[in-house]
Write a structure and sequence with these properties.
single chain; alpha/beta; Rossmann fold; 3 domains; eight-stranded mixed sheet; six-stranded mixed sheet; 14 strands; 17% strand; disordered C terminus
Amino acid sequence: MYLIVQAARFGDLIQTKRLILSVLTRGSVHLLVDAALAPLAKLLYPKTTVHTFHFHGVMNEETLSLNRQTLAGLRDIPFTQVYNCNYSGLTAAVCRLFEPALVIGNRPRSAFIERSPLLRRISRMTAHRKSSCCNIEDVWAHYVEDPVPPAAVNPVPRAGGRGIGVVVAGRENRRSLPPETICALLTIYANQADCRRIVLLGTQSEKKSAQAICRSLAPSLQKLVLDLTGKTDWPRLIEAVTDLDCVLSPDTGTMHLAAHLGVPVRAFFFSSASCHETGPYGAGHTVWQACPPCAPCLEAAPCPNNTLCIASLNDRFFLRAVALGDKAEPPKNVLCLTSDFDELGLVYRATAGTDPKADFRNAERAFLSSAILHKALRADTARLSREEDELLREIFAQDSDWMLPPDRYL
């Protein structure tokens, strides 16, 4: 029996899929998720046992009591391995229920959280986010040796005939496109696809944005709109997205749900979002990535550039590039990328525009892929073949983790 701890958001739960499918090939899987996502987890992963924990929100006497009950139940299960996906003090505390050697990923130590060797190397790469090379779904999948092939994770994206889905907003303003930009993009895609149905998706708080989008559409498209903002619980959201022709979205959980269901995604990434880290999983999705010099940014910090990235996606030359495809180049600081697979997992390659970090990203990806395939980054101690030992020496030559802290040898 195996335990996977995933305490993060809607999209992160879906992006744990490759790890879950990989561990299911080894035995029964238990998932520990936040209480708000437990109903969704049961729908997405019916072959797993879902445990509920209150990771977020106000902790009162009732939630603490429920958490204690969950922990007591987990403590009595003889897990073979525990996979902790989150760099979090609370999930590390949960993992203290188990022997340290059983925990993979983010592991509790006496006074800190320790990343396992593979995760430590990837974390160092992603610290330079402009050249990030590894999708988070593949990072978690490689917690195990020989994960399921990336092409086996989600269905091949295909138009299902039920119209275009539009995710009205991201989780905050800086991750959301203005209604007028969404309207312009929707008009382009609807005309290209001879669309007969438009489904607006979002929460109740996004109802005004949905209404603004609808008002801005031509009358011929307005009558095609089905506004489901604020009307979808988890089962209804899955039903609404299933078999759509495509989904237009920023980096959102609903975007990942579409990829999970095999619906083609046309995504727009900007602000703190990078498709190389969290792009929709599957071969054949398209992402328009705004990449001004300041991106990707830290979403918790105020923007010093008046959201230049969003302005890039509201440029008339950008809309022209979307409409004309490969007949028009996107404006400066905008790339069009298409998803595909390699031996490591999901990869996004530019099909329009120039990615200045492409060569560096490809080199890092090749290095990481070689290291994983040779198991050189997987374990703290292992008996290695001569070839693997040589590769490990090469890794150490580029990695300072093995060195003593400077104040120890001065």
